[in-house]
Amino acid sequence: MKCMTADWTSLPADLINRIADSVLATDDLDYYMDFRAVCSAWRASTTDPKANPCHPRFHPRRWVALDEVRMHQSDDARLFVNLATGRFVRKDMPMLRSYFLVAGAAGGLLVLADRRAPHAARVLNPFTGGLIRFAAPVPLETAVTAHVVSSSPPTLVLLCYESRTIYWGDPHDESFHFRKENHNSHPWVWMALVGGIYAADRVYDI
Hints:
single chain, 4-stranded antiparallel sheet, 2 domains, transmembrane, 4 helices
């Protein structure tokens, strides 16, 4: 008697996409990548995040790097936690050897600088491997906090505490726009950026 087994590779494309969408809804991007890796049929039925790394659908929203303090060390692994579910994930990212790590951004993205001059900015999605390439070089600053605005095109915002300067730009800008704050700036303007919400005041917009 033959044992009947289910042929999971023959699932209808709409059902495959519904399952994939449910995984993305919980921000489990690593599960989405594992799901696509099951077979060629499932990959063909779902969107490849690397094909359009700027698409906000595949940007992490609820993750944070717990060991960001280790970002300037040679270890390629980083520990992330999903703030909504409490799930921990350690990601091995050998590609970090090709870049300088600048900062972690809200949601779990990593801001990098190309090791080759002029050290152009990059934004890495650690869960999909997608890389957003910026033309502008990373400013020579220390103590940087970063945020990526999921607009079209995406905007990278760098907040530099020591110089009290805000830099921002999209992938096509040859250099970052910047605004230097005086020491009497209201703290809430800076904290809004650190929290990954927005940065604005009554005088100018970012």
